[in-house]
Recover the amino acids of this structure.
């Protein structure tokens, strides 16, 4: 059974940084595309960043480009999201997802809350 467990969320001030982690229990983690999504109160879940199985293939929504960095450590079966220069509008529950096939999220984590407030 595939499990994705996010961690690293919290309450921070505008301009601060956070690093989210997503530990995956799946054989062959390196072969799967992974992604981060977020859902703010009263809004639909939205794509934030994605990373393919091939080195160097990363994708970001425009609002986080230059501030967020997605990465993966295949030896640790872990996905990361480094978030810098956080803004109040980044406040949301952040979810990691595993793509199988790459463009379809087949598994979701339980989410981790990120709150950016002064």
């Amino acid at each position: 059974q595939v499990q994705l467990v996010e961690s690293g969320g919290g309450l921070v001030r505008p301009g601060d940084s956070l690093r989210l982690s997503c530990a995956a229990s799946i054989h062959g983690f390196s072969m799967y595309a992974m992604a981060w999504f977020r859902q703010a109160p009263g809004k639909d879940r939205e794509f934030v960043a994605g990373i393919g199985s091939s080195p160097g293939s990363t994708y970001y929504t425009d609002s986080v480009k230059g501030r967020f960095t997605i990465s993966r450590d295949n030896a640790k079966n872990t996905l990361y999201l480094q978030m810098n220069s956080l803004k109040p509008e980044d406040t949301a529950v952040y979810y990691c997802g595993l793509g199988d096939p790459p463009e379809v999220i087949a598994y979701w984590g339980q989410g981790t809350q990120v709150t950016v407030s002064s």
